[in-house]
């Protein structure tokens, strides 16, 4: 992210970050950066797919600290709608790096950072519940963040070192120096403040005696997300060939020499005109022209333009269409406000622009196909609603430990054949619901009787049981549902004084310490989270035919992994749910809905659209895939008397019988 080595250089110099007691001010927050920062710096689980309730607590505590100090946060989340190829190579490199990180974590190593699948959604939900103003940018967020901060004369809070380059009068507060947990009180005023460091371009440029307009040139030549001269076949030769000082890092020396070179110019164009004297190409003049063009485009990304978000924050209105880039004309007008409110996935912009998309990576078994394949049929309908049938989207995803691409066809279920994207918000609710349920292969009657906010997770679980490979066994399903019960109890706990016996019992499982990671369990739940993510995106595009759940309460990785081990070891769900009839009933209702859905499938009902690719998901004769032979999937009816204590339930299982 940003300029490699610049943060270390600023820290090394030690004079540009001044102590600050931040209070009673607006602040524009880099939302995408902060949710990564809060997750990674709070020791919340990464190996088991995430503990979203713990993440919610971290977000709540951090924003409470801001409000206690009179700080008004305005959060901008990156929409990521870069419509050119300028940044895509960088994104692919990051995608490959995340695959490597996931592989290390799958082996039990603690090295690396990997954000869980639903963290972004949880972050948006928490901001909404806290009534923190936030916007999802519909194009690159950094210029919008800088523009709004300049307009309001307030600082930016981020950990993206690109903000060392933007000329923001009130400065930049590096998140790594922002002491959320150390809010203090000034003795003479009784006013709370947060200790932090503040950076301004004024102090930086004064020290190096350069015009602040040259900072974007410095960033471009040094190399950022948009241009890397070294990878283009260029090397940089300074006239100053003095030997490197002992104990000086090479990057520090490079930055000092580059800034000294820039100090001899006054304008950006003057510096650009002299770049051919600075860089040496191993190839021809054509490459030099390409390099100069790339540098110019990179420099443009740091120019502050009139932003589009002040109107949204002040009046709740979308920007004037004349202020939007031309490439965003592909967006139907009705989508603009939901996109900016975070009620539509910005992922859709990439699809409408026919840009390749890079699928997220999670900890799973690298020897098995990517968990994203399981939810691909849901995405195909998402693509179909946006593009129509017969179009294709290029997806990049994990294959073993490599990043590879494939073309994925857009499809439409029968219920969606007459829907038009520009009028999708006007389609009857019954039609939009039918499209969603047909995609997931679930009937409306299956969901009757369930709490409204759990209908979508249960529908997704029905889909997951049919499409996951290897097929999930019974303890995997039971643990997942017990995790949903746990989430409900945690949600209700916020309005209750005492913790009930079931919640206390389930919490006790977490406190016994993490077991060795079971890759079979991790892979199964990775697939479930991908299905949930794509189900949420489809539900949003269809204007919420089902109530959107609170994702913080849907999945707690360290709990459900423990539960699988307990259930496989002989513990029964009723022993965990006893003394709480409402929890027992909720578990029973969800389980029966899911099992009835499996029964409906075998009676000849459609199970949603088929994927357009050939795979071996039906060939399940591998004995070494790390899963129990007890299966819940398509097969024959058998009685399963111990799914919930003494209750007798019908359950679809494979032709293998349950054995104790």
UniProtKB/TrEMBL annotation:
Region annotated Disordered, chain positions: 598-630
Residue stretches of biased makeup (Acidic residues): 612-626
Domain XPG N-terminal: 1-95
SUPFAM superfamilies noted in UniProt: PIN domain-like (SSF88723)
Gene Ontology molecular function: any one: nuclease activity
Similarity comment: family membership: Belongs to the asteroid family.
PANTHER family xref list: ASTEROID PROTEIN, PROTEIN ASTEROID HOMOLOG 1
Protein name: Protein asteroid homolog 1-like
Organism name: Salvelinus namaycush
Lineage: Eukaryota, Metazoa, Chordata, Craniata, Vertebrata
